[in-house]
Amino acid sequence: MFEDITNYLIVGGLLAGVIYGLVARHFDLDMMQAVRKAFRETDHRQLLAVAVAMLVAIVGTYWLETTGTVDVASAGYRNAQFDWLGVLLGGLLFGIGASLGGQDAARVFVNAAGGDLRALLVLAVFIIFATITQFGLLESVRLWLTGLTAIDLASGDAGIASVLGLPGWLVLLVIGGALAAYIALRWKRGGQVSLLIAGAIIGLITVASWYVTGVLAFDDFNPRAPSGITASGPMSRIGMLVIAGDTPRLSYAVSFVIGLAAIGFVYSIIRGQFRFAPVPGGKLGSSILGAALMGIGATVAYGCNVGQGLTGFSTLSLESLLAVVGMFLGVMIASKKGWD
């Protein structure tokens, strides 16, 4: 029984990472760069794909929860402690960092495995700062910040519906409607069908991850909360492996990032694109600073653009919504200042 459950987690995570990485690499899809292109270049094609991914994710996850298929509310994204400042500030730092570093938390694995030395540098620094923020020198600062402003919710649920006292279907209708309206309006001004399909696939990966971890890998004798795709969490675990020799358990999330790296390498080899591309001139310092901000920000915000931006957001968590707002604002500020 245990071996079957473990296989579901490992194989499921690997497949999710491979498919996500393949879609992101083939269609050059990067969530944070999509925001930059829409804000700075008025090119909304990639952001339309992100909106489709979010829409598919929230609708599918809502269905899994309301039908009782997966206990989504038990996931960490909707716990009893509402850390509003942490997720907003962390998201802001992550967004600025992703702009400086030139890639989001998923693409950095894919790009690094394809020989991009800038991505490899960003990945290494990201891992270091995620680790020291979660477990090391900056842990006390992070915990102090959480204790300073976090609110304990009487309802025990940081979902938007629970916090605002609204029915879940209404929250889904408002947020889903806003995403659908954006997609429809921007599509009229120029959209790309292939990118919308790519976004839908990523949204389906988010939903499928809940099903794998919450149904296929659920153990009645040792129940665990369901989880989903994320990239920043495994980074701190990888950091502990390097620093302290603590081997991370092959969870769904760890398998996911392994899948991202694997497809990044295989894709670049098959397409004849593998090469050690140097860090562009003048980008060394900004890449290091950006990666550090990404590592700190993702840890303080309890997730990156994948963990909070897709998995957390799909639960209609208020924390995840604030994290996404912070990330988008961070990218826009960096673009406005020309830091990207």
Automatic annotation (TrEMBL):
UniProt entry tagged with the keyword Cell inner membrane: yes
Top-rank lineage group of the source organism: Bacteria
This protein's GO CC annotations: plasma membrane
Keywords, ordered alphabetically: Cell inner membrane, Cell membrane, Membrane, Transmembrane, Transmembrane helix, Transport
Residue spans crossing the bilayer: 6-27, 47-64, 84-105, 117-138, 158-183, 195-218, 250-270, 282-303, 315-334
Membrane topology recorded in Swiss-Prot or TrEMBL: Multi-pass membrane protein
UniProt subcellular location: Cell inner membrane
One Pfam family named in its UniProt record: Sulf_transp
PANTHER family, sorted: INNER MEMBRANE PROTEIN YEDE, SULPHUR TRANSPORT DOMAIN-CONTAINING PROTEIN
Family: Belongs to the TsuA/YedE (TC 9.B.102) family.
Name assigned to this protein: Uncharacterized protein
